[in-house]
Specification:
alpha+beta; 7-stranded mixed beta sheet; 6-stranded mixed beta sheet; 25% strand
């Protein structure tokens, strides 16, 4: 207690000799000196422009972009399944297939008909009969037939009629009442690759449960975000929409607003250069890049009035060897400094971000425009909040400072310009605000010392 009393008496003595000698003119002089230094370290008003005098402050808005109808990415449902190479049929032909032994009573062959349970992902009913695979030329080979039957493009009922006619009317080995059934055991699949730069491998593993697409996952890129996957898509499900759904869903906020489909293989290596060419945005009536049908660009969102590409079923149906690519969008960020905490923040892909929203995203508060005091990092007191906001933007290779009045921006939308990539937002004190804060801070210290001395 003795040491504490000694310290208090010393503080009172020092305050009476020095601190209380600070007069009101001295406070103002100190504030003016600091204000002069503050004015020297900031960009002079003569070198800044107002938002209304800057013609490039507002660009195309992102908020009201129209999304493409996902149905455009899905193939049209068919009235009946059409056969093709790779389909596995279940065929039962009375007295021709499935005969084992004879009945002891009627001395007749005992038919055996196997039953197959299709993969649940195919949504097919159980199939009966012995397996016969449609060959690459679209034909099947059946017992006692010298020639193969061409079934490509036929339905199951058409194929059953064709087989019945072949055994009853052509070969004449069966009567007209012979039992013949044709069903589908396993539909054909199409081998495609999906490369996505907007999802993680864990996301893709979780989306592939109970599906056929377990062909393997590998990483692309420098970070954990970005994957490549091989898919085997069932016939009837081999379209862009299903490929996206099985690899993480529709492209996320980290992806570009387009899907690229590469058909088969390129005849020349130079054909792939058009994929990354920024001079081919593919917006118009044709989805093809430079007229090349092997490269299809499908935009997912467009600006109002911008025409959608005239997609056909051939554009969105995937075949063997096709590659679907979802690219990550270029890094679009803005920076903060000055009285705002320094940092780098991403610009949203699908909605607009004005300067006030950017301040909020950076952890600041627009309450300063209305007289608030929630500014971090102040070293001269925040009794009077800073209201001088600068947006540093590069235009035609030169840095341009846009001066924004925060108080006016509360009621004037023209002051709330849209943030563009690489903008630097700086919140500063005006020289007058520096002087007032210094005066009020010093006056507050004087009152605190006086209360302590008393």
């Amino acid at each position: 207690m003795g040491e504490f009393s000694f310290c208090v008496r010393g503080l009172r003595k020092q305050a009476s000799q020095s601190a209380f000698r600070v007069s009101l003119p001295g406070c103002l002089i100190g504030g003016m000196v600091i204000a002069m230094f503050a004015g020297c370290t900031s960009i002079p008003n003569s070198e800044t422009i107002s938002p209304r005098g800057f013609e490039n402050t507002r660009h195309k808005t992102r908020y009201n972009m129209d999304s493409i109808n996902p149905i455009m990415l899905r193939q049209d449902p068919v009235d009946a399944y059409r056969l093709g190479p790779g389909d596995t049929l279940g065929i039962y032909i009375e007295s021709i297939t499935g005969v084992s032994g004879v009945s002891g009573v009627l001395n007749q062959p005992i038919p055996t008909i196997p039953i197959h349970t299709p993969d649940p992902a195919t949504n097919l009913p159980p199939a009966t009969g012995y397996p016969f695979t449609v060959r690459d030329d679209g034909t099947i080979s059946l017992p006692k037939m010298q020639h193969s039957l061409n079934v490509e493009g036929l339905t199951l009922m058409d194929t059953q009629t064709l087989v019945h006619r072949a055994y009853v009317e052509v070969l004449r080995v069966l009567g007209p009442d012979a039992v013949i059934t044709v069903s589908l055991i396993r539909p054909r699949t199409y081998h495609v690759v999906v490369i996505r730069e907007d999802v993680r491998a864990d996301d893709m593993r979780s989306s592939s449960s109970n599906t056929l697409q377990g062909k393997g996952v590998s990483f692309v890129g420098m970070e954990d975000r970005g994957t490549a996957r091989t898919l085997d898509l069932w016939a009837g499900q081999n379209d862009v929409l299903n490929a996206l759904n099985m690899t993480g869903g529709m492209p996320s906020m980290l992806a570009k607003n387009e899907v690229i489909v590469l058909r088969g293989s390129f005849g020349e290596v130079t054909g792939a250069d058009m994929l990354i060419s920024k001079t081919n945005p593919n917006y118009g009536n044709s989805p093809y890049v430079n007229g090349n049908p092997n490269i299809v660009r499908i935009p997912l969102r467009v600006h109002p009035g911008q025409p959608l590409p005239e997609l056909t079923q051939d554009d969105i149906i995937l075949k063997n060897g096709d590659v679907v690519i979802v690219q990550s969008r270029e890094a679009e960020v803005f920076y903060t400094g000055g009285m705002l905490q320094g940092g780098m923040y991403p610009i949203p892909r699908d909605f607009d971000l004005d300067v006030f929203s950017a301040i909020s995203m950076a952890g600041g508060s627009v309450a300063v425009a209305a007289g608030g005091t929630s500014i971090r990092g102040s070293s001269i007191g925040n009794i009077i909040p800073p209201t001088r906001l600068l947006v540093i933007r590069e235009v035609n290779g030169y840095q341009q400072a846009i001066r924004i009045d925060m108080k006016r921006g509360l009621t004037d939308p023209g002051e709330r310009i849209l943030i563009q990539p690489n903008d630097l937002i700086m919140l500063e004190y005006t020289p007058t605000e520096v002087a007032l804060n210094m005066f009020l801070s010093t006056f507050s210290i004087r009152l605190d010392l006086q209360s302590l001395w008393n």
